[in-house]
Amino acid sequence: MELMYSSTRNDKVKLTASQAILKGLADDGGLFVPERIPALDVPMDTLADMSYQETAYEVMSRFFTDFTEDELKDCIKKAYDSKFDTPEIAPLVDADGAYYLELFHGPTIAFKDMALSILPHLLITSARKNQVKNDIVILTATSGDTGKAALAGFADVEGTKIVVFYPKNGVSPIQEKQMITQKGANTCVVGIHGNFDQAQTGVKKMFNDTALEAELDVAGYQFSSANSINIGRLIPQVAYYVYAYAKLYKNGAIAKDEKINVVVPTGNFGNILAAFYAKNMGLPIAKLICASNENKVLYDFFSTGTYDRNRDFILTSSPSMDILISSNLERLIYRIAGNDAEKNTKMMEELSTDGKYAITDEMRAQLADFYGNYTSEEETAKTIKKLYEDTGYIIDTHTAVAAGVYDKYKKDTGDTETKTVIASTASPFKFTRSVMDAIDPKYDTMGDFELVDELSRIGNVKVPQAIEEIRIAPVLHDTVCEVEEMPQVVKKFLGV
């Protein structure tokens, strides 16, 4: 049975999976959601013996029903290959009473690779299926990781161009170096004088600019998105939670149907929403633990039922989570509003005009599976140091936010028995200075790449290829602009 997709702001328009992937964002500014969450109807004993690629097929085929088996398997094969530095793709590491799901073994050493390795192939296949003649222009804003992962995924992919905007002073030095050294004639990287939320709002405005859309169409281009707002980004993320559970079961860490907790460091809400979808497919997940940094807009939302972005924006050591508008939360709001597009639209309009909205008590009751908390900068550093000293295992700042919140969850609830998976979303090599300073302040005198070598030594872990490549790579992108200049920069790059 074909699964259709509708917008969170208009449930009357029905699109196929490939049409929704192509569009990225709905015309009304809403996000595409499946009409229902399909059941994961594969026995756990079968899943336990599957490779990552096979698991990904079982999950994605339930959502992307207008793709043929050959089309989808071809996309998966091209995505999850030797670009990843381990055949497991997403290995689990047992450290200090939790299982760290390492999602950073791809080409850009962050979890975004898990979905952005496949999105270009899903997009190109979708374009063919829908007889699209225009070149696809991927337009994306990044708080650090999405940008590089999208650039790596789309570089030199025929029929596509990609423009990435990032906050000029809001990403780590390694993150910036990874982006501005990106090769590929179809790539464009732009720093903006502003923060991530401003970059994301600027991108959304361009998507909704009908005059710009018409202008691009004449020139043979159309926009699509690689942000986690694209359903082609979200669904591939569901697969790794299923894979992690199946591997824990296979290894005898959990019994069949035993419930686990999942902890996710959260900014834009996409990664934890994927875990929520996995749970709704039937994966035995008890609590979805939403971990915030000091930009704790999501913690406050789960605590009070009010989403309020009217607050100071804080630059932290976990920059990919420095976000005050969590775009993917809209998909959850739509669901707990009873899939009521009108009700959801009203709240999103309030967010746009007043910077906040409140959900009803009835809606809050549906969030009982979630637990929210946050980790301060000081706590994040202490978590990195303690885990390293106790186990020798080194985690990045974002994963440390999650580990810190998991400690608070155990203290708050007394739940120390439920097996728990922590989404480890980036390699510590991506945030070497923050990580090494946390372990010992003496490291602060070292240069960025000296720190890389020292981290490799003390952690007894090989320097990833992604870091080795940028040591001497030349800067290829040096454009910086004001927020209001973003459309002009795009047009100039496309020669429009």
User: How would you sum up the global shape?
Assistant: globular
Number of helices: 22
CATH topology of the domain at 92-109 and 232-460: Rossmann fold
Q: What's the CATH class label of the domain at 92-109 and 232-460?
A: Alpha Beta
The pLDDT mean sits at: 95
Using the CA coordinates, give the radius of gyration.
21 Å
Keyphrases for this structure?
496 residues; alpha/beta; Rossmann fold; six-stranded mixed beta sheet; five-stranded parallel beta sheet
Could you characterize the architecture of this molecule?
- By secondary structure, the protein is α/β, with parallel strands linked by helices.
- The protein has a domain at 92-109 and 232-460: Rossmann fold.
- The chain is 45% helix and 16% strand.
- It is built from 22 helices and 16 strands.
- It has helices at 17-23, 44-48, 52-63, 69-79, 112-116, 119-129, 145-154, 173-180, 196-207, 210-218, 231-250, 270-281, 297-304, 329-336, 341-354, 361-365, 377-391, 397-413, 432-439, 448-459, 465-470, 486-494; strands at 5-7, 10-15, 32-34, 92-95, 98-102, 135-141, 160-167, 187-192, 221-225, 260-265, 285-292, 306-308, 356-358, 370-374, 420-424, 479-481.
- Strands 4-5-15-10-11-14 form a six-stranded mixed β-sheet, with helices on both faces.
- β10 (260-265), α12 and β11 form a beta-alpha-beta unit.
- α4 runs antiparallel to α6 (119-129), α11 crosses α12 (270-281) and α17 crosses α18 (397-413).
- The model has no long low-confidence stretch (mean pLDDT 95).
